[in-house]
């Protein structure tokens, strides 16, 4: 079954998820809890499926899994759920309203599990533009991981998702002084094609971000980057 989630057709993957969902609902919570932790990693790639129904189902299933864990599994699940935060952040910009709604609800479930009051508050008040900064403030040590998670979304078919990725990467580059030259090069290489993106919002923001990163003062005086970027991102 797990193999199908990796290489099966979209239809087959949906059938497997529905079957797993039914099984988990019938198990005692102690048994379902262990399985839930194992499943999270299998769900993450499905968030970016071309099939909107599969995106929504996998995201809704994640939210359900987060509520199943008990005891020691809660600690393990907290580690796993961090890997889902950036994908969920971007899927909140999905052009399919039901997928965006499911992503918001899954982030709320993650906030509950992580006991993250600020994230929960922002989601409940729908202050969505502050979520990226909230993630960075909570765990600045994960900035490098956030970059690597974000880069593939610069090639997402949806302009809204690409824009969200550029914006989040822009926020992360405020911490450029803690990044290596190789990281800067990776970001520039990924952003450069978006300067010619067909969506003007994406191309404009990508151009501003790359311009700031190429600035000599960024390499010599990282604090100058912070001031410059504050003009581009709230």
TrEMBL record:
GO terms for cellular component: cytoplasm. Pfam families: HEAT_MROH2B_C. InterPro entries: ARM-like, ARM-type_fold, HEAT_Maestro, Maestro_heat-like_prot. Residues 1-213 form the Maestro/Maestro-like HEAT-repeats domain. It comes from the Eukaryota. This is Maestro heat-like repeat family member 5. The lineage of its organism: Eukaryota, Metazoa, Chordata, Craniata, Vertebrata.
